[in-house]
Structures are given as C-alpha cells and as structure tokens.
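Structural prep section.
Before we set up the soaks we want a predicted structure of the protein with NAP in place, mainly to decide which crystallisation condition to try first. Input record follows.
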Amino acid sequence: MTAAIVATAFGGPEVLAPTEVEVAGPGIGEVTIEVRAAGVNPSDGKRVAGMFGTDPSKLPLRLGSEVAGMVTAVGPDAVFELGDEVVAYTVAGGWAGAVTARGANVFAKPVGLGWDEAAGLLLVGTTAAHLLEATGVGEGDTVLVHGASGGVGVIAAQLARLRGARVIGTASARGAKVLEALGIEAVRYGDGLLERVRATGSRIDAALDTVGTDEAVDVSLAVADVDRIATIAAFHRESDGIKVLGSGANRGTDVRNAARPQLLELAGRGDLVLPMGPSFPLADAADALRLVMTGHPGGKVVLHP
Ligand SMILES: NC(=O)c1ccc[n+]([C@@H]2O[C@H](COP(=O)([O-])OP(=O)(O)OC[C@H]3O[C@@H](n4cnc5c(N)ncnc54)[C@H](OP(=O)(O)O)[C@@H]3O)[C@@H](O)[C@H]2O)c1
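Run finished without errors. Recording the tokens verbatim:
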C-alpha cells in the first residue's frame, strides 16, 4: 500500500482527499516507481471538475499523469533495473508514493535534470511540440506565443527558437521577467495587445495560443494566417478555422509520444528550461491544485510524496 490523493467527488480542489492504495505489481515491460515528484497540471483540475466526464463509477478518481522517481520493481522484459532514476508520462495515479507504469512511457532521467523539473516536463513539453508541428514552425519564422511564461508556452517558445524562429511571447509583468531571463521578447497581454504586437514591427508567421481567451484568438487572427494558428485551450473558437489541439482527431498522440526522449535530452543538457513554481507535500495536493487553477501558478507546480 502507498499514500495517494484521490478525488472523492467531482468538484473543486476541496474534494481531494488522502487515502491508501494498492500498488499494482509490474506486468510485462512495466516498472514500479517510488515517486520523488509528481506534476500538477490544469488538466488534473479539469478532470476533478468533471470537464472530461462525470461518470460516478470512476470515483474515487486517481490523479496525476506524470512523475519522476526511482525504480523499485521490474516486470518481465522491462528495460530498467532496480534503482534506476526515471521519468514516466503518462501514468495513471501519479499523485502517490508509488505507481506502476507501462515500459513505453518510462524514460531514463537525465543526470542533469532535477526530480521536480523531470516530473513536470513531459505533459507541457509534448503539448508544446504538438503546437509547433501543427503550425509548421521553422527557421526564419516569427512566432507569437500566448501565455509564453506558462508551462506549455515557455517550452513552446524555447522549442521554436531552437528551430530557428524569432519568438514574441505574451506575458504578465512577472512572466515577462521569466521570458527576458530566457532571452525571449515579451509583450504584456491585456487591453492594447494587438497594438503592442504590431509595434514590434514584425510580421507574424504563426500564432500559438496556450491561454484560450478571445483576446489571444482575436489577436492571432488579426496578425497571422488562419492555417498557422493553433490553440490548446480555446475549444470554443474551433469554428474560426484555427487548429484546436488535444481532442478528437487532433490529439496528436504520435507526435506527442515521439517528442518525449528529445525533450528530456534537451532539458538534460540545459538547452530547455522549465521554470519552477512552488512545490507542495503530497498531503497538500488541494492547495497545489488551487494554485494551478488560478491560471497564475508562477511556474511549474509539483507534489512531493
Ligand atoms: N489541449 C491540450 O492538449 C492541452 C495540454 C496541456 C495543457 N492544456 C491547457 O493549456 C492551458 C495552459 O496550460 P499550462 O500548463 O501551460 O498552464 P500554466 O502553466 O498555468 O500557464 C498559464 C499561463 O497563462 C498566462 N495567463 C493567465 N491569464 C492570461 C491571460 N488572460 N492572457 C494571457 N496569458 C494569461 C499565465 O501568465 P501569468 O501567470 O504571468 O499571468 C501563465 O503563464 C490550460 O488551460 C491547460 O488545461 C491543454
């Protein structure tokens, strides 16, 4: 048995509760991981809120889709050994002291990457990679990234630069400091955003929205070709003809899965940085989720079992 956090009902962070769960023994290719850090994502909050379904038979709902930790048990044909330091995404029920993961979703943790960064990288990183693929970002492009200091945005901005693009990122005053430290041009979001983007003097070849506001979509449509605008959050704007990623025919599962090893390699050698926010003990998962659901977490939030 291990400690875990579950949602006892669909609702806000107050429905989260600590419990004890069985850890499944590893099957073929699988490994059991003693969790050192687990990522907290807006998608966890959306699941708890019932935005992905409210089937009561799913309760109590296990949460947490990404972890970093140490291998403590291996199934037949597993490629890892006891004591290996690994990253796993996706897992089911990563907000726990231990979790068993499919071999295809487990990767060696680069030596140069801390537990927290490793635990928080892959959900946002694979989503960012999908945004770049969907909009064909490449050498010489200028890319507008909405929410560029957020988890997905900050990785998308850096990956775009690694592809040879110029990046203009929208951010708050606090977020702008994060972007400046990474050498990314920032413009403030909010009233007057379109004028500020135009004042950069650059044509915009592609626009990536990680925020989902009408402001982000409207400004994107005003400056970029609709074929090169993608969003991961403005599901209500699909009728504008922009690419809405992460559901239906646009899950991007292959692109996202294929991106995982490269993301870890880039982060391990310091070419990709995930700015971290506060970390919380596992028992305080409700506070962590509350912070993430404000939309202003101040960096990637992780739990420590
Ligand atoms: N469809 C998919 O496959 C998929 C996958 C992953 C995530 N998502 C969704 O994508 C969104 C972002 O996820 P994330 O993990 O990157 O979140 P995050 O780390 O919390 O980042 C959110 C960012 O949005 C910025 N922001 C907040 N309000 C804003 C506004 N009005 N205008 C512009 N920027 C604003 C915040 O900046 P400040 O704090 O500086 O204000 C912050 O940098 C979430 O809705 C998430 O559910 C979708």
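Observations: Residues 41-43, 46, 124, 127, 146-147, 149-153, 170-172, 174-175, 189, 210-213, 232-233, 245-246, 292, 295-297 surround NAP (CB under 6 Å).
Flagged for discussion at group meeting.
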